[in-house]
Write a structure and sequence with these properties.
single chain, mainly alpha, Growth Hormone, Chain: A
Length: about 425
């Protein structure tokens, strides 16, 4: 049941007509835009920025290791579970990320400080993720997760692709002006987070023991006590390995193929935006009707095939010749980008629905952070290896290899099915947890 603000509970006062501010799905959309935007800056903008500064592919791959903050975020997730001031965590992280953008706007040179600043940025973004994920899991009922995850993926991608506007600005007002514009965006997001409905109070019966229950050890022990958890963790680690292995090399490929920052931003925003939202909504719709398990393997196939589009484009488009791309090359790469955006939304909607479905509601933020950290580990390590692979093998061969990296996860689907059955409402485990 949707929680409406009550008098005296500290909820923001909104006009009677402002029903969107009281809608769960409105806040899911807004908050996941706020979660996606910093990842877009890190994942889409920084590789272009580094490549234009002359950093080699291996160095850009090394940049992905700074994303280990998303892997290690479980270390401070219990603090957010304990203090539960999700809105303050979100707003504070956004303000601090805006300050990092101002540092890039006004600091001179390209020295070691850049790596330290990006490392701080990823820690702040990971903190923001923890707060938003915990807040959302508390907000939603299980039968709302499919549609909500469609919105999550769609607007998460909107947030990521909004970084395309920053790329466009870098061609028009140069990088310092573009980073200053990103800082203003973070300020606006921080102000919006303060309007979110307050989190629900912990049940009185558990209030005294909340600090004892919500610990890393407790959350991890509950996960590891489940039958078949090791194969499930391996599945989480490698389900999106193909995407992770290719992802950090996509933007350098665009730069080396002769595309400007404006062209990259326009395609990412204008083409990828609509298709990623459509993919996320379609994936959520399919997961609600076909079930999370079927959605995982069916939509995962489409997700894997999207890498083949980039492999074909890399085999046709000349690289590193300093020439403007031909019209047919533009069409080919735009088509590959569009297919990747749509299928990425499909696969991720099912994947996140799976993660949300198997967490213990009493330890939602910490367990979700632990599970998503397993996935983030593969993204960081695969991105680092991807820089070396693309540099040594060439883009086309390496992109083709990433297609086949998506399939080993399918060997672990039997354990995934058992975990979903064990954590379904009405199961023995669910009844024990609720009791």
């Amino acid at each position: 049941m949707e929680r409406h603000p009550q008098a005296g509970d500290g909820a923001p006062r909104t006009p009677n007509g402002s029903r969107y501010l009281r809608s769960k799905f409105f806040w899911v959309a807004l908050l996941y835009f706020a979660e996606g935007f910093p990842l877009g800056i890190y994942y889409e903008l920084f590789p272009v920025y580094f490549r234009q500064q002359g950093v080699d592919l291996a160095g850009i791959g090394l940049l992905s290791l700074l994303g280990l903050a998303w892997t290690l975020k479980f270390l401070w997730a219990p603090a957010i579970d304990h203090f539960r001031s999700h809105r303050l965590w979100m707003a504070g992280a956004d303000l601090a990320m805006g300050a990092v953008m101002l540092l890039f706007a006004f600091a001179a040179g390209f020295g070691p400080w850049v790596w330290a600043a990006i490392g701080l940025f990823t820690v702040l973004s990971a903190t923001n993720d923890i707060a938003i994920d915990g807040y959302t899991i508390e907000l939603l009922e299980r039968d709302e997760m499919g549609l909500a995850n469609g919105l999550r993926i769609g607007f998460y991608r909107v947030g990521m692709l909004a970084s395309g506007f920053v790329l466009i600005l870098s061609d028009w007002i140069r990088w310092p002006g573009a980073f200053a514009a990103a800082a203003l965006a973070f300020l606006a997001v921080a102000l919006a987070c303060r309007l979110a409905p307050p989190e629900r109070a912990a049940p009185r019966a558990r209030a005294a023991s909340l600090a004892r229950e919500l610990t890393i050890v407790d959350a991890l022990a509950e996960l590891l006590s489940r039958r078949g958890i090791v194969p499930v963790l391996v599945f989480i680690l490698i389900f999106k390995l193909g995407d992770a292995a290719m992802g950090f090399m996509v933007k350098p490929f665009w730069v080396d193929a002769g595309f400007s920052a404006t062209a990259i931003g326009l395609v990412s925003v204008n083409v990828g935006l609509a298709l990623s939202i459509a993919g996320g909504l379609a994936g959520g719709w399919y997961a609600d009707r076909a079930g999370i398990f079927r959605a995982l393997w069916v939509l995962g196939l489409f997700q894997a095939l999207s890498n083949a589009g980039y492999a074909i484009a890399a085999g046709v488009i000349p690289i590193g010749q300093g020439l403007a791309p031909l019209p047919e090359h533009r069409v080919l790469l735009y088509a590959a980008s569009a297919f990747e955006s749509f299928t990425g939304g499909l696969g991720t909607a099912a994947f996140l629905a799976f993660l949300m479905a198997i967490v213990d509601q009493r330890r939602s933020a910490t367990q979700y952070a632990l599970l998503s950290s397993v996935f983030a580990l593969s993204r960081s390590l695969a991105g680092w290896a991807g820089g070396i692979g693309a540099q040594e093998m060439g883009y086309a061969t390496y992109f083709l290899l990433t297609v086949f990296l998506s399939f080993p996860a399918y060997a672990f689907l039997p354990w995934v099915a058992r975990m979903l059955r064990a954590t379904a409402p009405g199961s023995a485990r669910e009844q024990t947890a609720c009791g």
